[in-house]
Design brief:
The chain contains five helices and seven strands; from the N terminus they run βββααββαβαβα. With 175 residues, it is of the alpha/beta class. It has one domain: Leucine Aminopeptidase, subunit E, domain 1 (3-Layer(aba) Sandwich), CATH 3.40.220.10. Strands 1-2-7-6-3-5-4 form a seven-stranded mixed β-sheet, with helices on both faces. Helix 1 crosses helix 2, helix 3 crosses helix 4 and helix 4 packs across helix 5. It is globular and about 40 Å long.
């Protein structure tokens, strides 16, 4: 199933973000950009430690910001690191929304067309899947008002529940 936000096609994917062949996948990062467990650990395990080394050379960044690195051995060409929280801290709705907008602006600066997002700030970040999905959908909605290059966004969940949260959030932000 897919939805549209402005002229952006948004779909969900049930599975691991590291398997997607898109221009860029998003890492749910901390602001120091070291890659521990969760999405970051999966990206480092499949893409290689060079992704973490490159990311850390660009940090630290402020929570709510984003940076881009190469994709290493991943099918995706790039990784956008969205800092939804400080190390050991908690994510917030606005930090996640801001990091999504910043990541999409960086993608536009590099003329990327397709980006995949995980549930940034959920899990160790402390947000529920619903809160994370709503923050991400809000960031996409704000970005859609500009004429950016990103036209395809995949929202990735490891469970059907997370994918359902993404769909509800997309519908909610458009009402």
């Amino acid at each position: 199933m897919e939805r549209k936000i402005g002229d952006i096609v948004v779909r969900t994917y049930l599975g691991s973000i590291v398997d997607l062949s898109v221009d860029a996948i998003v890492n749910a990062a901390n602001s120091d950009l070291w890659m521990g467990s969760g999405v970051a650990g999966a990206i480092k395990a499949k893409g290689g430690i060079e992704i973490e080394k490159e990311a850390m050379s660009l940090g630290p960044i402020k929570p709510g910001d984003a940076v881009m690195t190469s994709g290493g051995a991943l099918p995706a060409r790039y990784v956008l690191h969205c800092a939804g929280m400080p190390p050991g801290g908690k994510a917030t709705f606005w930090k996640v929304t801001s990091s999504v907008q910043n990541a999409l602006n960086i993608a536009t600066d590099h003329n990327l067309r397709s980006v995949a997002f995980p549930a940034i700030g959920a899990g160790v970040g402390g947000l529920t899947e619903q809160e994370s999905a709503r923050a991400i959908a809000t960031g996409i909605m704000h970005y859609s008002r500009s004429s950016g290059s990103v036209k395809e966004i995949t929202l990735v969940g490891l469970s059907k529940h997370t994918c359902d949260c993404f769909y509800r959030a997309i519908d909610d932000v458009q009402e």
